Amino acid sequence: QSENSDKSSAESDSEPEVEQVSVYHNLLATLKASPESESEEEEDESESEEAEESEAEMDSEGSEEMGEADEEDKNEVPEQKEREYNPFLSQQFPATDTAEQTLGQERADGADTSCDPSHEVIEEFTDVKHESEFSLETNFMEEESGDCKADKGDSNSSGASSEDPFKQHMDKELEEKEVEKMSTLPKTSSQSKWPRLGQLTFSSTLEKHKTLKADKEVDVKQLYLHKPLESTWPKVNKQFLSSVNQPSDPSFTPLQRELFCIMNTYRDLFYPERDALANGEEIRHAYCLHALNHVLKANAQVLSNNAKRRDQKPGTDNDDYRDQGLTRPKVLMIVPFRECALRIVHVLISLLEVNEKRKIDVSNKKRFKGEFGSDPAEKPPNLRRPEDYEAVFAGNIDDHFRIGVAILQRSVRLYAPFYSSDIIIASPLGMRTVIGAEGEKKRDFDFLSSIEILIIDQADIYLMQNWEHVLHLMKHINLLPLESHGVDFSRVRMLNLNNWSKCYRQTLLFSALQDPQINSIFNRHCFNYMGQVAVRNLPLSGSISHVVVQLPHVFRRLEAENATSAIETRFQFFISKVLPEYRDAIMSHTLIYVPSYFDYVRLRNYFKKEDLNFTHICEYTKKAGVCRARRFFLKGEKQFLLFTERFHFYKRYMIKGIRNLIFYELPTYSHFYSEICNMMKATESGADATWTCTVLYSKYDVQKLAAVVGIDRTAQMLQSKKDVHLFVTGEN
């Protein structure tokens, strides 16, 4: 591409963010507390004397509390509109063991651009000095030396092989009737059970594809990995390997082997059992290997054809060199936090370094460390949270970022303009602010036109941020670009010119849970002609088995005609049948758990209208309001506490004083059910028999219900169509 196009891409990549920065910083400022203030909050959780210490303060503030709360209430709904494109940002708690420490051991690049680590805005960055070095159009395979020459020979030989999955997938020429068939006919599916992944569902519109079988053993040489990856992958991945692995398969864990077996066939994949504690990092390594393998093969093909074109006779018109898309970016990785991007880049660099003596050249490394790293010393020493929370919120958890990565020969260029990048790593919010909305002057999504691999990792977290950003991205991927961006159309694949890119795009979707919104991405926005593979294991025992307090669980079923009407049906059912039972003063200390913020606003407005004695905590409540609400609820001065799921997700505070619990809707994360129930242990009352737990559900909550009570109980509850009473002792 031309230098000008790269400059313009850098501008379009940066400037829209300036418009969003004020709102973004306002939101961050309201939620970002100092380590000292967080320590105070933790002390508030761990010591009951806090209420007594603040007694005098509350006497003076008590008369003002409702007025302040009302003022906050008025601001919450407009505030949500103002932040429509900014999901809730939690306080940043860096972890002590992050990828930044490992990356920091690598040698510094003299060409790096220094920056302020606290710098939030992505400024314009055009690295003209490295432009020709990383241009695919002006480089040739002959310029490589040493190991790279071996790469060339091996790449060419494997690329010529008809068995190479990359060649098979990208060289496949679909017919127009096949494309029409994929868009009109329903998919046919088949079931298969694999040793590690479990129950798989294979689906495809084209009938010729047979069900894939799991390989018990994998020879790295049979995977058609690009030359350097064959030697670097076992070294990079050895941290996940144990003596359990057989000598014949020294490179992959059982999970990685089966996942990569599917990835390497270029089928779409949905894996809803990602666990940040158990398997998150080994999954990250597996998809980084696949993405890098794809990029190296694609770039090697272009460089090889450059040499062939240079050596051909003048005037020769050859159509055999169609090896590119309409734009250069091939892989898009969507991750929730900067720490995730940091770890991905570290894995990519490690996979490219053949040995310790020959480090690869990484441009702009210092700037990257400053903007994506974190300072372990900033973490409050007395912060106590569950292990899964610590794993998810490790390192830099800023969720507004995007970065282009260019890979060529023995070099990696960070902060490459998008139109000069091979891989783009971004958050949903980072993508949303550059894609823009219809009618905005500065918006750009042409760089998404030729994405060949889309990786969406930790999809469940986007439900806690803003799912609309993900949907907005899916609507703008693989569209024909509005401008040419300096492309040589004689090198563009026919699939791209025919606007069939979406039929060749592989989507890899990883989540910690199954959710209808996540399923809809996989079912409605993925059109891969190779078909899809989804892991569909049913939960045998639910999270209710982890409840350690003895209390009756009442599951109350509501009947709704469809998923949309269930929202209104749930509200009417709650105010007419459930709430009247708790209005009596005897039923004090009632916490109402509300997953949806909009349901929370509706309930809060209804409670105010009915003049009920309640307080409330949501993700937008200021620290002072949270402390007051918790104190009033503990003392019994407020009968009800409205409590949002997103607040619990980002803060995970212990709420004391709960005697009655109402789940307005089943929690998104099943383990939140047991966590909230077990908060009753902190209630200083021996009247265990008076504790209650009521859950509202409909037939459209089957996935959430199964995750809480197990699949067998779910089947019984859906068949009975009656309220179900369960008494859990912590053992059943």
UniProtKB/TrEMBL annotation:
All copies of domain UTP25 NTP hydrolase-like, residue ranges: 266-533
Any one Gene Ontology cellular component term annotated for this protein: small-subunit processome
Parts forming coiled coils: none
UniProt biased composition (Polar residues): 88-104
Acidic residues bias: start-end ranges: 37-74
One GO BP annotation of this record: maturation of SSU-rRNA from tricistronic rRNA transcript (SSU-rRNA, 5.8S rRNA, LSU-rRNA)
Keyword vocabulary terms for this entry: Developmental protein, Nucleus, Phosphoprotein
Locations listed in the record: Nucleus, Nucleolus
SUPFAM superfamilies named among the record's database cross-references: P-loop containing nucleoside triphosphate hydrolases
Domain of life of the native organism: Eukaryota
Domain UTP25 C-terminal: 543-727
An MF annotation (GO) of this entry: rRNA binding
Comp. bias (Basic and acidic residues): 1-10, 75-85, 117-133, 308-323
Chief site of localization: nucleus
Sequence segments annotated as region (Disordered): 1-168, 304-323
Record has Nuclease as a keyword: no
Quaternary state and interactors: Interacts with CAPN3; the interaction is required for CAPN3 translocation to the nucleolus.
Function: Component of the ribosomal small subunit processome for the biogenesis of ribosomes, functions in pre-ribosomal RNA (pre-rRNA) processing. Essential for embryonic development in part through the regulation of p53 pathway. Controls the expansion growth of digestive organs and liver. Also involved in the sympathetic neuronal development. Mediates, with CAPN3, the proteasome-independent degradation of p53/TP53.
Family designation: Belongs to the UTP25 family.
Name this protein carries in UniProt: U3 small nucleolar RNA-associated protein 25 homolog
